[in-house]
């Protein structure tokens, strides 16, 4: 984010504390109109976690050299267990630590926005799905410097679906200029809504606005959908893939990619190349330097309720997608962020639903990606063929 932010690899901005909080301009990207990427990503297993989390996110905090996780869904204790415990991964010691703090409202299906407010650096999450399978509008913030967590009752998540149900934005959150941009969402009959439906709304959260006025409406997406993967590159926010609910019945992954350059204008679909595969429930990493400067890397594609391992690379200047690698463990709904490895920042993914039990059980493994020159290998695009069945959140 990290999957939703643009990083300058190797640069630590002390005044911000989290690398993703300040966007940097994409640099050095060349148009790639051919079938092969300018660079590829090789993935190696990292340290597995002691918890098997899914439908969650991680955020790297530079001041502490840690990645924080604000609860997760887990198949431990049942297929649909929600755990609100706050953990961190210590990058230096490569260990996972329980902070002993819990989120006041344990949720899954969230993405973290790292924002600076009057109390310092806060890790914000908007809404989510609670332990009773209800989609909530709670806004929660965790302060890693003080190990404190609060509910922001004055400014609940305002997103709704067309019939007025609270929407579930899941991973559809981008951070730019100390604002959170929350896009799209879904709700379901199973979550006390009148039907399964998608939202096209965009909302902007300003952590330093007066209480009760921190949210403002942004432009609507061209395609209403949820489980969008968001990224920030060259000052633009990209809404990659996601799920629609055609006929209000099942989640259907799509290839649609839209981009918006805040604060003016709206979402542009026609001028942005769609991703080669239907893609949902994943992460994205925007690079500002190194072999993948000016590119957004999507490590894998969820295709609910399945997944494919393809790593797909979007060249911003060339408006083109290429295949540039594959992860080792088939997964969807993983956490993701950049972490420093040997002085350079690398994409890090953890957990998610794995393929061994048909994407019902969450997994423990992590992977770290290393960008490099294209190595001449071609990876065929893999398409999931299993039936999706009933919806789930």
Q: Can you tell me the number of structural domains?
A: 1
The CATH homologous superfamily name equals Kelch-type beta propeller
Strand content: 35-45%
Task: Kindly report the CATH topology.
Answer: Neuraminidase
| Biggest beta sheet attributes | 5 strands, mixed
Specify the overall morphology: globular
Number of helices: 0
Quick synopsis:
The protein has 393 residues and is mainly β. It is built from no helices and 32 strands.
Write the layout of secondary structure elements.
Blueprint (H helix, E strand, L loop, with lengths): L5 E2 L31 E7 L7 E2 L3 E4 L4 E9 L6 E10 L4 E8 L4 E2 L4 E5 L2 E11 L4 E9 L4 E4 L21 E4 L2 E9 L9 E9 L9 E3 L11 E5 L2 E5 L2 E2 L7 E2 L3 E4 L24 E3 L7 E4 L2 E3 L2 E3 L1 E6 L4 E7 L4 E2 L2 E7 L2 E7 L2 E2 L11 E8 L20
Parallel strand pairs: 1-22
Antiparallel strand pairs: 2-32, 3-5, 4-5, 5-6, 6-7, 8-10, 9-10, 10-11, 11-12, 13-14, 14-15, 15-16, 17-18, 18-21, 19-20, 22-23, 23-26, 24-25, 26-27, 28-31, 29-30, 30-32
Can you give a write-up of this model?
- This protein is mainly beta.
- It has one domain (6-373): Neuraminidase (6 Propeller), CATH 2.120.10.80.
- The chain is built from no helices and 32 strands.
- The protein has a five-stranded mixed sheet, with no helix packed on it. Strands 3, 4, 5, 6 and 7 form a five-stranded antiparallel sheet that branches.
- The two termini are 22 Å apart.
